[in-house]
Specification:
Blueprint lengths: L1 E5 L7 E5 L9 E11 L1 H10 L9 E8 L12 E5 L8 E5 L3 E3 L6 H4 L2 H15 L6 E4 L5 H12 L3 E5 L3 H11 L3 E3 L9 E6 L3 H9 L1 E9 L25 E4 L9 H12 L7 E6 L3 H9 L6 E5 L2
Parallel strand pairs: 8-9, 8-11, 9-10, 11-12, 12-13, 14-15
Antiparallel strand pairs: 1-2, 3-4, 3-6, 3-15, 4-5, 5-7
Helix pairs in contact: 3-4, 3-7
InterPro entries: ADH-like_C, ADH-like_N, ER, GroES-like_sf, NAD(P)-bd_dom_sf, Zinc-ADH_QOR/CCCR
Pfam families: ADH_N (PF08240), ADH_zinc_N (PF00107)
Organism: Streptomyces monticola
Length: 309
Amino acid sequence: MRALLVDRSAPAGLRLGNAPDPTPEPHQALVRVAATSFNYGEVGHLLQEADEGTVLGWDAAGVVERAAADGSGPAAGTPVVTLAPDGAWAELRAVDTDLIGTVPGGADLGAISTVPVAGASALRALHRLGPLLGRRVLITGATGGVGRYAVQLARQGGAYVVATTGDPGARGDALRALGAHEVVGTPAAVTEPVHGVLDMVGGKQLVEAYEMLAGGGTLVAVGHAAGEPEHFPHGTLYGDDGRHDRSIASFHLLGCTALAPDLTWLAGRIAAGELDPGISWRGSWQQAAEAADALLGRRLHGKAVLDLD
């Protein structure tokens, strides 16, 4: 099969070549990939650490080529969206059936390929906050893939959404169009306490966001884009200012269970036009280096989608 292979002598460390077809386990379906979407964590970190010739990739949408031998999961011919630790950047991938969501017929598989990491992370992190109706929710790094989905889903869940972005003047209108009620530059600029935080940035912004939590509130640390440590001032965790019982929750998507229903639900919302996938770049996988460079250069505010042609 053809695949994007790790090759550090090639532009952006990727070249289109040939790799062995995957051999599915009994609980895995074989999926023919139609489109994949890049995530910063893959391109910015995994690609630098992977062995030469490796096939990486978390997100892919396509059609089931061969159903799982154990009878689980969708039948052959079903359009699907898939998540796995690797293998998305190839014509074929073997995927655990509990990480496969079904897709409505006729849906744009390129748009659907943005769902797994970005959409499912946003959905599961919001679930961790609990009921959203009537609550104030802060989303940091809101112009990224996860952040954009989180803004939309939080608004649809009935939350009052406050979003942060590095350039509120340039990006505020786009975030408000997605559902944000307020757009600010940093968590420190938030004027009232919030009941929950989804943090995509880490470092100083996570510390500032925690300071904005009301009593009983939760911060979910979803992303770590800043690449900086978190240093809390002495006394931050005392809880003696009337805002006790605040918590910080770590997050890892592949540590979640029963993701197939979530992927199916999200794919349906994309197909129905109820969620904007936020595609900032789309092209052939032969242009993978261009997409990777744009992502690494922070020139994309949203998702990069590669169609397999």
